[in-house]
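Support request, please re-run this one:
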Amino acid sequence: MAASRKPVHPDRRPAVIAGASSGIGAETAKSLAAAGFPVALGARRVDKLEDLATEIREAGGEAFVHPLDVASTESVDKFAAAVATELGEAEVVVCNAGLLAPGGVIDATTEQLAAEFDVNVLGAHRLIRAFGAGMVERQRGDLVFVSSDTAVRARPFMRGYSATKSGLEGLVEALQMELEGSGVRASVVRPGPTWSEMGSDWDAEAGAKVLTEWIKWGHARHSHFLKATAIADAIVTVVSAPRGVHISPVDVNPEAPVEKK
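Re-run finished. Output below.
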């Protein structure tokens, strides 16, 4: 017998965050929970999710934890079913899971690039498939995709990352047009340089090469990086917009240091 699902309530907006274990995903979960959204936390590192859920609950929010690997259709489907059972039908889905590695395009293997596309593009599509149809049926919902400024201006020695984010934005642009008039909004939030765990496991020499090349090609105009909370705040703004308002794309970039006079 299938587990019963929580009834849909117009004022209850359960929010799914894929890639919630750290960085932008974790901060988005905390910000959404603080704004009154019940949050479903999905990632492979369940221990990190449990710590985050405890923090959210202690602050008065509602959080549910379930393993999620966006590179696996089976994992995504199990996650979606568990969310519906525990929190009710998802009103918001934040596609934030990502894979990033240093290296040149010519040196990367096709298998390495395929793994990046599997997470960064196909992973987003798996979430669309799992949650989008229900949103269309209910004529209500927000699908938010965390992209990158590399989608519009590629950066060297980041292997296939720029290509995956360009591909993601192409997918979402088509989705936006297909969803027009459905009551479901598909939105892109495009962060600039942001402090997060992505890149923290890089070899020091590889990381230094990437930063040197960024400067060479004019990508690093100043030293400031965004905090992940800035992206989280932008996502809350997007999904909190009233019906009839669609905010996308949203570019969030670090402000340059104020020059001394």
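The CA atoms of residues 77 and 259 lie 51 Å apart. The two ends are 71 Å apart (CA to CA).
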